[in-house]
Amino acid sequence: MTPDNMTTASEHLISTGTQNAPQTGLYCFSHDLRVQDNPQLNELLCRCDRVMFIYLLNPKWFKTDHRGIRSIGEQRWRFLYESLQALDQCLRRYGHQLHLLVGNPLTLIPALCEQHHIQHVAGSYNSGLNEYRQWQQLTEQLDAEVSLAHQNTLWTSQQLPFRLHQLPKQFTPFRRQIEELTVQAPVSLSERLNLCQPAQSPDNTLTFEQLPKPCLCHADAPFTGGEDAGWQQLHQYLWKSRQIEHYKQTRNELDGWQNSSRLSPWLALGCLPPRQIWADIEQYEAELCANESTAWFKFELLWREFFYWSAHRLGSDLYQPGGERKKNLLTSFYAQRFRSWCEGSTPYPLVNACMKQLNATGFLSNRGRQLVASALVNELSVSWQHGAAYFESQLLDYDPGSNYGNWQYIAGVGADPRGGRHFNLLKQQQEYDPEGIFIRKWQGDASLQRDAVGIDDWPLI
Predict the structure, then answer these.
(1) Ramachandran region of residue 326, left (φ > 0), alpha (ψ -120 to 50) or beta?
(2) How far is CA 369 from CA 8, 260, 270, in A?
C-alpha cells in the first residue's frame, strides 16, 4: 500500500470471521498516548466485546550506535515513561490496563492475535518510515481486520486538497491550499470503554518497575508526560496566563518557560491531539483575543502538518544526505567535531550553551535549534544526518517528519527555496544574548580546540 492509497479506518478493514461471536480487539498504542480524540480507539471499542491495550518497547532504543548515540536519551525516555504510566492509570480507571511488551511488532502482534483469538487490530500512523512499513507488512500478513489512521494531524489524507504525490514541495504553496480548510472538532472518548471487558493478559507483560529507571526532571524544563499534564499546559498557556497573545514576539527567546507554548513534547507522543489545540485557539480567538500571535501559533501548526505529510511523500529521501534533490554537500563525519558539538565544547559559546541546555533538559528553543544545526553543518562541516540523529536521541518532542524535515531545511537539501540557512553566530549572540546571561547560565564558554588528530578522526561518510 502506497501513501497515496492510505484510507480511513473503515476502508482499511479486511473482512474475517463471524460478527455474531464475541469479538476481541487489540489496540496498539504508539505515538497516540491518549484516549480523547482517538477515533481509532472509539471504532475498536464499538466493534469489540473484549479489548487488549499494548505498547511495544524496542530494546534497541537503549543501545548506543557507532557514534555513541542512544535512540532514546535519558530525558526523552523519562517523558515517554511518564506518559505510559499516565495512560495506564487512565485505562485502569475504566477497568483496563496498558500491557508493556518487548519484541518485534512483525512477530509479536501476529502471535498475540493467534494466542488470544483477536479479530480486530487498530492503531495510528506517525511520520516515521519504518513504523509505516511495519504497519503495511502487518496489514498484509494478519488474518485479523486491521484499522489504521493518521490521528496526529489536523486533516486526514482524504481531506487534503491533493494526493500525497502531488503535495507541494515547499511550505508556502502548501499553506495556501490548506489554510482555508475546516479542521474537524475533536471527538470524545466512547462510553464503551466502560462496557468492554479486558482481554486476557498477554504473557511476558512487563511492569513499570522492570523498565529502565528514568532520570529526574530538570527544574528548568518541568515537562511531565501524559495526557492530563498536556491538557494542563494547554490550559495554562492559553486560558490562565494568556501568553499566546505574545507568542510571535517571544517564541525565539533562548530561555524562559512562558516564552513559547512548550506543547510540542505532548504533541510528539500524541498525548495532545493537534485538533484539540487548534480548537482551543479558535475558541480563544472568538472569546478573548485574535491577533498576530494567535495567527502565528496556528501558522506553526501548519508547518508541523507540512512536515508530517512531506515525510510520507518523501519516504526514504527524508533520511538521505542529499535529500530529494540528491544534492552533494561538502560535509562529512568528523568524530572529534561531532563529539564537541554534542557535549557543548565547540569554539562557539552560544552553540555550547544551547547544547548543554538540550542535554540537561531535553528541550531547546526554536532559535536555538536553528543555530546549533547551522553551526554543525556550516562551521564544523559535519553531515546534517548526524545532528538529526542526536536530536532524535535528546529531544522530548522528537518527531521524524519535523526533525528530519527541519534539518534538511537548514542543510539546504529540503523545503527551503533559498537553499539552506547559514546563521552568523556572533550576530545571533548579540541579538538574543547581548549580555551573555544565557551563555553564563549554561556554561557555554568557548573551547579553543576545534580538531584533535587521531586515527579515529578520519572523516567517515
Answers:
(1) left
(2) 35, 14, 22
Same domain, 333 and 231: no
Residue 210 within any structural domain of the chain: no
Is the residue at 99 inside a domain? yes
Q: Which domain holds residue 162?
A: 153-184+226-315
Give the count of domains, the chain.
Answer: 3
Separation between Cα atoms, residue 253 and residue 255, nearest integer Å:
6
DSSP state of 122: E
Q: How far apart are CA 251 and CA 445, in angstroms?
A: 25
Q: Indicate whether 453 belongs to any domain.
A: yes
Query: In 3D, which of 215, 266, 295, 363 has the Cα closest to residue 34?
Result: 266
User: What is the C-alpha separation between 130 and 146, in angstroms, rounded?
Assistant: 18
Question: Are 359 and 438 contained in the same domain?
Answer: yes
Q: Is residue 194 part of a domain?
A: no
Q: What is the CATH number of the domain that holds 80?
A: 3.40.50.620
The secondary structure of residue 320, as a DSSP letter, is: S
Angle at which helix 171-178 crosses helix 292-314, to 10 degrees, equals 110
Show the cell assigned to 179: 489554510
DSSP string, 25-39: EEEEESS---STT-H
| 118 and 144 fall within a common domain | yes
Q: What are the grid coordinates assigned to 360, written together? A: 540537561
Give alpha helix (H) positions in 37-165: 39-47, 74-92, 105-115, 129-141
Distance from C-alpha of 315 to C-alpha of 230, rounded to nearest angstrom:
30
Confirm if 377 and 409 have CB atoms less than 8 A apart: no
Look up cell 471487558; give the residue: 197
Which alpha helices (DSSP H) does 93-205 contain, by range? Answer: 105-115, 129-141, 171-178, 192-195
Q: What DSSP letter does each residue of 191-230 carry, written as one string? A: THHHHSEEPPPPTTPBPGGGSPPP-PPPTTS----SHHHH
Walk along the chain (461 residues) and give the pLDDT tens digit of each residue.
444 444 443 333 333 334 468 999 999 999 999 999 999 999 999 999 999 999 999 999 999 998 989 999 999 999 999 999 999 999 999 999 999 999 999 999 999 999 999 999 999 999 999 999 999 999 999 999 999 999 999 999 999 999 999 999 999 999 999 998 999 999 999 999 999 999 999 999 999 999 999 999 999 999 999 999 999 999 999 999 999 999 999 999 999 999 999 999 999 999 999 999 999 999 999 999 999 999 999 999 999 999 999 999 999 999 999 998 899 998 999 999 999 999 999 999 999 999 999 999 999 999 999 999 999 999 999 999 999 999 999 999 999 999 999 999 999 999 877 878 999 999 999 999 999 999 999 999 987 655 544 434 433 33
